[in-house]
What does this fold into?
Amino acid sequence: MDKQFVVTVKDLTINLGGRKILENVSFAVKRGEFVAILGPNGAGKTTILKLLLGILKPTSGTISVLSKTPTRGNSAIGYAPQHRVLETDLALRARDVVGFGLDGNKWGISLPSKTREAKIDEALKAVDALKFGNLPVGRLSGGEQQRLLIAQAIITSPQILLLDEPLSNLDINHAKEIVDVLIKLKKEKQVTIILVSHDINPLLPAVDEVLFMARSHSAMGKPDEVITSGILSKLYNTNVDVIRAKNRVFVTGAEI
It folds into this structure.
């Protein structure tokens, strides 16, 4: 495999529960790229992340992540799952949540140490969350909690960062703040980012390429190349209109 590619997927098919989720999907992600996975509910966006994490196995086809077949517990991959806003009475500190990222392969609770606290501080700083690191996590906003999940995912200094709907349930301003954090991480940490989202608009200033998925198939390329009436109409097998106005993209004729 060409070393410039950290993810290579070829002729991937996966069936789950008697349903074909993906069929003959192929794509590749270069080192240091920011890629958004887009598409309607049920298109297989989160399934792709689970395949890259080694949680699921393909029915057919091949997957290579960092030149190896994906396996669970790979510290070279950071993962932030889709989250729900935590309860306001939760007393766990923000830095404790971030510290869980160091305990993925351990049993029990780790004892405090200077090295551990330094790693937590570094991760908090990387996502601009150091100022609320000692606050109860239940008191933080949805955007602040999302920063903690990203900090938890990068605390082991992964080469690849996988994010499942990190912008969901965030208003425009908080979504922009998270995107700014990801742009900073890509630049400063040289991390490859693969992010699942329903909406491309907050990500337009950041992404290098998009992987658009619909009806078990996909198309990958730069946003202007993929998010077009021609490509999406082919993916959805129906007429789809793509309208661009004021640096935003609007898609009509199909549910996204």
